[in-house]
Specification:
It is globular, with a radius of gyration of 24 Å. A hairpin with a 5-residue loop joins strand 4 and strand 5. It is of the alpha+beta class. The longest helix has 23 residues. The protein starts with a strand and ends in a 5-residue tail after the last strand. Helix 5 packs across helix 15, helix 9 packs across helix 26 and helix 18 packs parallel to helix 19. The chain has 27 helices and 20 strands. The strands form four sheets. The chain has a seven-stranded mixed beta sheet. It has three domains: about 230 residues, Aminohydrolase, N-terminal nucleophile (Ntn) domain (Glutamine Phosphoribosylpyrophosphate, subunit 1, domain 1, 4-Layer Sandwich); about 190 residues, HUPs (Rossmann fold, 3-Layer(aba) Sandwich), CATH 3.40.50.620; about 90 residues, no CATH class.
């Protein structure tokens, strides 16, 4: 994994301002401490920060084709690199490195914008085609690797800037950080930032499965910028799912597909480790990885310092069964509080889920043990209905036994009204439901979180967002979704929102790469998704048993108690920010003065609920979401302090002070290429 950045002038060929590329790359050095590289020509600059994992000695970027007319900087991994290289060499292409990046310029030569059909893996790509005068920016199918872009009018012209992180854009000196309240509204709807909006005005997140084409025009004519979809999630029409006459044969097929996915993700020129929670997802990954390697794979486990949330007993059972010796990292209230400034700097947006800090610490431990790559189990819950809201939604659906009498929806409205939601929320909820082709369990949980907007937003915030419905920003293919089984519609929402917005962002790439660690996801393999998308819904959720086909597979490799263990949501205590003894920055961020400076939240409402939630029943959904909302308020204030106005609290906002010492570089090699037409 690496970090990429760059910019292109959309109106003329004036030089890139001196030092801009280097500043952008320096802002994301944590993504690639091993070496940097640059490509420049009039009006264009590409930058790379490399974390060397494949082709350690000769994989410096940018990487080009044989005649130098196609240049690429690349963040990610192409897991079928050996097979892709062999195919390209058979077609006459010549390789000069042992790095997977070199597959990209040669594949572009053969297929141009159809090349994404031939790339398998996780990636963010910037490719410059000199002959066609075209820049391509692309992101992988599921959104593992981030890519942000913005268009800025400056005294230097009309520029399009891009980067693996927003910090790279801000470091250019061309982008002034300003808040986008609609982006903040996304965070208080989805627990994360699924895109295309960010919390920064004018900065966009390129969606998974999309690419930007920037086609330069003739001299004096503006460039054409267009966005294209090369892939999107798809499921069979309802009733057309593949039949299952033999469950064991289905499990055999799934096992073969998952083994192949894990084998591909074990490919690296450095050691590969795995996260292990003790749940069926990560435990199956660890078991199959050990089978492939013929020895136990090193594992890393979080211990939440709360007996009700601690899963180390279960993880220890798996470790003993598989012969692993896990590294265990403790995470409690003190750690949650102290790590949040660093977490917000890494995530570049409000983080409502305190367990994201635990993943930040886990990645740091992986780095400190000298590793660069970790497997993880994200994606299984998304493809196999692993969350409790799927069960709740299914239970409520049994109320709808009388055609034309939507008792389940009436029950939801009654509960919403009981929580004190305003009457106009019903219209917002109806629009959200229409945006995803029908009701599903995610709308229930997002609706619960949305209650916090009415508790905490200021009148100015409500006025600013108006009738904004975040679900309408997500660009679903509703016509297609309506033809799917309702469960598959819900899985699509999770794969588009929960997965890239929270799991791959706040809990995945951003916290891992902040520590120079690449995370790999066997359940996000194209073939794994394709297999699970086509099977019958009752093989995903059988009755009220989630992840049925995965549990049947896990029985072959793990103790039965692990294979059929009830799903436990990985989370940390939310009330860390409401303890009696808090670091000064929390009260400073929540002071009336700081709240009025940002204008997002109502100071009286915040003061009231900081006290009132303590009287709510412990463990209730109502209290949990109020706690999460208050964490979100602190996180939003902290984000504003970090990136916009450093006067809200006695905290640093300079990257070096927040981040601490940068990872030690294993190499200081630099590659710089200055190109002219025809090189």
């Amino acid at each position: 994994m690496c970090g990429i950045a760059g910019l292109i002038n959309l109106t003329d060929r004036r030089p890139v301002p001196a030092g801009t590329l280097q500043a952008m790359a320096a802002a994301i050095i944590h993504r690639g401490p091993d070496e940097d590289g640059y490509f420049t020509r009039d009006g264009l600059g590409l930058a790379s920060r490399r974390l060397s994992i494949v082709g350690l000695a000769d994989g410096r970027q940018p990487i080009r084709n044989e005649d130098g007319n196609v240049n690429v900087v690349f963040n990610g991994e192409l897991f079928d690199y050996p097979e892709a290289r062999a195919r390209l060499e058979a077609r006459g292409h010549r390789f000069t490195t042992h790095c997977d990046t070199e597959v990209i310029p040669h594949t572009w030569e053969d297929h141009q914008e159809q090349m994404f059909d031939h790339l398998r893996g996780q990636f963010a790509i910037a490719l410059w085609d000199e002959r066609r005068q075209r820049l391509i920016l692309a992101r992988d199918r599921f959104g593992v690797c981030p890519l942000y872009w913005t268009r800025q009018q400056t005294a230097e012209g009309d520029w399009l800037l891009f980067g693996s992180e927003i910090k790279a854009l801000l470091a250019s000196g061309m982008v002034t950080p300003r808040a986008d309240r609609r982006g903040i509204n996304h965070a208080f709807t989805f627990f994360g930032m699924p895109g295309p909006l960010t919390c920064f005005e004018g900065i966009n997140c390129l969606l998974p499965g999309r690419y930007l084409r920037i086609q330069l025009g003739e001299t004096g004519k503006p460039a054409q910028v267009s966005q294209h979809t090369y892939w999107e999630m798809d499921f069979p029409d309802q009733g057309q799912e593949e039949p299952c006459d033999d469950v064991e044969k289905l499990v055999d097929h799934f096992q073969a597909v998952l083994l192949a996915s894990i084998e591909r993700r074990l490919r690296a020129d450095v050691p590969v480790v795995s996260y292990l929670s003790g749940g069926v997802d990560s435990s199956t990954v660890v078991a199959l990885a050990g089978h492939i390697r013929k020895q136990p794979i090193p594992t890393f486990t979080i211990q939440i310092a709360d007996p009700k949330l601690d899963e180390t007993t279960e993880a220890g059972q798996v470790s003993r069964h598989l012969g692993c010796s896990p590294v265990v990292v403790r995470f409690g209230a003190e750690e949650a509080l102290n790590i949040y400034p660093r977490l917000i700097h890494a995530a570049e947006g409000p983080v409502l889920d305190t367990s994201c800090g635990a993943l930040l610490m886990l990645a740091r431990e992986v780095h400190q043990h000298g590793y660069k790559v970790a497997l993880t189990g994200e994606g299984a819950d998304e493809w196999l209905a692993g969350y409790p809201w799927f069960k709740i939604n299914k239970a409520l659906s049994y109320l709808d036994v009388i055609p034309g009498l939507p008792l389940s929806q009436m029950a939801r409205w009654g509960y919403i009204r009981m929580l004190g939601m305003p009457a106009r929320y019903r219209e917002i909820a109806a629009r959200a439901q229409a945006a995803v082709g029908g009701h599903n369990g995610y709308l229930d949980v997002y609706g619960m979180l949305s209650r916090t907007k009415w508790l905490f937003y200021s009148p100015e915030m409500h006025e600013a967002i108006g009738d904004h419905v975040p679900m309408e920003d997500l660009q679903f293919n509703v016509e297609k979704m309506r033809r799917w089984h309702p469960l598959n519609r819900a899985l699509c929402v999770g794969g588009r929102v929960h997965l890239p917005g929270l799991l791959l962002n706040h809990k995945g790439d951003r916290v891992a790469m902040h520590n120079s660690v690449e995370t790999r996801y066997p359940f996000l393999d194209e073939e794994v998704f394709g297999f699970l998308a086509k099977i019958q819904p009752n093989m995903k959720m059988s009755g009220f048993r989630e992840k049925y086909v995965l549990r049947k597979l896990a029985e072959r490799w793990l103790p039965k108690s692990v294979a059929w263990r009830r799903k436990a949501m990985f989370r940390a205590p939310f009330d860390s920010f409401h303890a009696d003894k808090l670091p000064p920055f929390v009260d400073q961020l929540l002071s009336e003065e700081s709240l009025r400076k940002t204008g997002y939240f109502d100071p009286k409402g915040i003061a009231h609920w900081r006290q009132a939630f303590r009287n709510m029943r412990s463990g209730s959904y109502g209290r949990t979401f109020v706690e999460m909302g208050l964490v979100g308020v602190v996180a939003t204030q902290l984000w504003h302090h970090t990136f916009i106005d450093p006067t809200l609290a006695d905290l640093p906002n300079r990257p070096s002070e927040i981040r601490g010492p940068l990872p030690t570089a294993t190499s200081t090699a630099r590659r710089s290429v200055t190109a002219s037409p025809g090189t």
